[in-house]
Design goal:
By secondary structure, the protein is of the alpha+beta class. The chain is 44% helix and 12% strand. Strands 2, 3, 4 and 7 form a 4-stranded antiparallel β-sheet that branches. The structure holds iron/sulfur cluster.
Length: 323
Amino acid sequence: MGRFRSALVRWFAGAGRNLPWRHTRDPYAILVSEIMLQQTQAATVTAFFRDWMTRFPDVHSLAAAPEREVMRHWQGLGYYARARNLHRAARIVVDRHHGVFPQDPEQIRTLPGVGRYTAGAVASFAFDLPEPAVDTNIARVLARIAWIEEPVFTAAGSKKLWSLAARAASKNPRKTNSALMELGALVCLPRSPRCGECPVRGYCGAFERGAPEALPIAKPRPKTVHLVEHCAWTQRGGRILLSPGHGTRWRGLWRLPRLECPPENTAPALALTYPITHHRVRLEVFRKRLKTSAVEGGCWFDLATLHTVPMPSPHRRAVVGMV
Ligand code: SF4
C-alpha cells in the first residue's frame, strides 16, 4: 500500500488538473465544490464555482442570502435541491456551530445533502483527516486494482471498497484521495482505460488479468423514459406570466405555466428537449392567453429584467427562443 500510494501521489503531483477548489483548505469552499460536482462535470463546475465564491465567499454570506438569490446563482447547474441543501447547511453551520465549520466527519455528515462520500471528501481535503471517500471514480479504480468482483452497489462490494479506501487514506489522505479521484477521471476511464500510461498498473489486478474493463460490476442503467411537457406562453406587452415551481426539483424557481392538455390543432411555437436523470423531456411551448387567476401562484415578470429571476435552464432557454 505504501509503494502504491507513493506512485499514485507522485503521478498526481505532475498530472493532476489545476482546479480552483484544489487550492483551498477552506471546508466551506470544498463543500461547495463537492456539492456542485455531485451531478456535474469538473469542466462545467469551474466557472460556476468561481462565480459562487465571488458572490458567497463564506458560510456567513451564504447563510444570510435570500433563497431567490441563491437559486439564481445556481441556475444552469440543475438539480436545484443541491442549492437548497447547501443554503440550509450554511445556516446550520452559522446557527449551531457559531460559523465554525465542523471537523468531525460524523458532524459534517449531519449537514443537509452530505452523505458518506462528501463528508469524507471535506474531512480529508480540508482537514487532512484519514477519511475514505468513495465516489464512482474511486470505486472503479479500487475495484479494478483489487479485483473486487462483488457488484459495487451491493453491501458486500461497498464494504470491501470502503475498507480498501480507508487503508489508502490512512496516510497523506488529502493527496491520496485527490489522486485516486484524478486517476479515475483521467486514466482509469469507464471505457478504454489508459493502462499504458497508468502509474499504478504494476499493482493492478485487472491489468494483470488483461481485463481492465471487466470491472466494476455496476447497477444496470434504467431505460430512458421519454416525456412531453406542455407549457403556456402568455405575454402582455413586455411582461410574461410565470408560475412558481414545485417539488424538490424546481421549488424556489419560476417556470412557464404548465398546460394539462395542449391546445387542439395547434403546433407548438417552440419545442426543445432536455435530460433529467433517466428521462428525456420534450418541452413544447404554446402561445395562449391565460388569465392570471388560472395559474396558481402566477405572477407577471418584465421580460427586460427576467435575467434576475431564478428559472430552470430549459424554461430560460424556451424564453430566449420565444422573445
Ligand atoms: Fe485502471 Fe488500467 Fe490503471 Fe488498472 S492499470 S488502475 S485498470 S488504468
